[in-house]
């Protein structure tokens, strides 16, 4: 089968789209299946490339050209994906490390908001997501770097975040995440995802693409696959799933995103309830030092619970755990206060977190919980599921 890379059913369509955009910056109309660049985007792209910032803009175009040429050699190595173009000059073939270095340089360039917009206008978003999705042909490090560039592009950049929403990026990134579960057959090879590298970058990209954008936060919160990605990254697996514990970096990324969503200025009681299983799981798995040795993750979990109480939205999710939280909290406060020297200083943030949470629990009034009870779902989480807080009662 021959593929042009820009249409049909080719999984490498994202590569052809970028190649076309690089070749048609003058506004030439593309084929019918590719949206034309608007006049506004064309003028903006030209101004970014020419008016006073030529060097960086030209370098970005050069990087993308070299990436497309090298990735085309990868595409052509896949059976059925070779492009029939015998007259084309030999493409520049880069090593995996060289491709990664180019993506790192690209990431540095698009940290500037104008270049991020220019990259988006060139059709770069489908390229990054498409490349990150090719888990059978594109090396894992390259896919990870593509996700890193994507995260940098959209962070605190509403126009880019909006462009991603219109692409349906939450579903696309969730699919990448769930396609990366570590498998025994992959151990030690390029596809070995036991370190969670790609999954961690997926969560980072999701986080950067929604934080600060009210509509995007709401879309992710209401997306089943999006919530499942966060739950999975935290380690919420059923007894039937024989999956390893997620790497620490992945759990921290998911905890950061969870906290951002439920404590956002636009968060509602309904949103907190949607994430109730994740909040309960964090309380059960990440607060007890006997279960979670990482101090930063314990501190993040304490701040999450305290902030939910401070905002008085969905407080029942935390208040329902008041008894076991109080017992564990008092025990941990006494244990930290008994420490001396550097150990005491190292645990000072956790101590403040526990004291703050206990104060917030004590301040909760009956009227707060009664008001919040109307937001409880008709089908509360099964007490036998993996999000139950029973671990709080356990101990060494």
Automatic annotation (TrEMBL):
InterPro entries, A to Z: ARM-like (IPR011989), ARM-type_fold (IPR016024), Hsp70_NEF-Inhibitors (IPR050693)
Classification via SUPFAM superfamilies: ARM repeat
GO cellular component annotations of the record: endoplasmic reticulum
Bias (Polar residues): 375-387
Recorded superkingdom: Eukaryota
Region (Disordered): 73-94, 368-396
A GO MF label: adenyl-nucleotide exchange factor activity
Protein name listed in UniProt: Nucleotide exchange factor Fes1 domain-containing protein
